């Protein structure tokens, strides 16, 4: 049965529990099956509820995730309920490269899961390092950057497979197509930073709900 067929069939009594769970972070269909089914059945109720708080519900049923995102507030009158997380330059670069790799994977493969080892990730990052950079030092920091990306929910460690990760598809919602289109233009700044030239804080975009 298509889970979407249950849309708007859940009882309003389940609404507080669903909204509370969303405030704690991303809801995944696979990991939070009960909450996910309740969310699908209360989608319009949840949207209306969080809209009063200046939030939008981002729900991708096909990919199996949902999260809350602050609405753009031009006059700055609304308080920010979902915190914005500023990313370091290295984590920003890693997220961009993972998103680009997922786009390439979806274009050229019929598989659903993009699996990468730590060595795969290191090879991917090293391609973008300037010749003048200290490659060994940068790659030594990679494990720290990967750990942060795991904490953000964009990489998932595979059980029983040390140093192996699945690229979480929710990354598509945070690193969007427009940002990727600007990626080549930003590479010059990235390489200057890696070479030791000071660069203002590098942030992919607002990272909310992770």
What does this structure look like?
The protein is α+β, with helices and mostly antiparallel strands. The chain has two domains: 68 residues, Arc Repressor Mutant, subunit A (Orthogonal Bundle), CATH 1.10.10; 106 residues, Arc Repressor Mutant, subunit A. The chain is built from ten helices and six strands, in the order H-E-H-H-E-E-H-E-H-H-H-E-E-H-H-H. The strands form two sheets. A three-stranded antiparallel sheet has the order 1-3-2. A three-stranded antiparallel sheet has the order 4-6-5. The longest helix is centred in the middle third of the chain and has 20 residues. The N terminus is likely disordered.
Name of the top-level CATH class of the largest domain: Mainly Alpha
| Largest beta-sheet characterization | 3 strands, antiparallel
Helix proportion range:
40-55%
CATH topology of the largest domain: Arc Repressor Mutant, subunit A
Secondary-structure element order, N to C: HEHHEEHEHHHEEHHH
Domain module count: 2
- How many beta-strand segments? 6
Précis, in short:
With 210 residues, the protein is an alpha+beta fold.
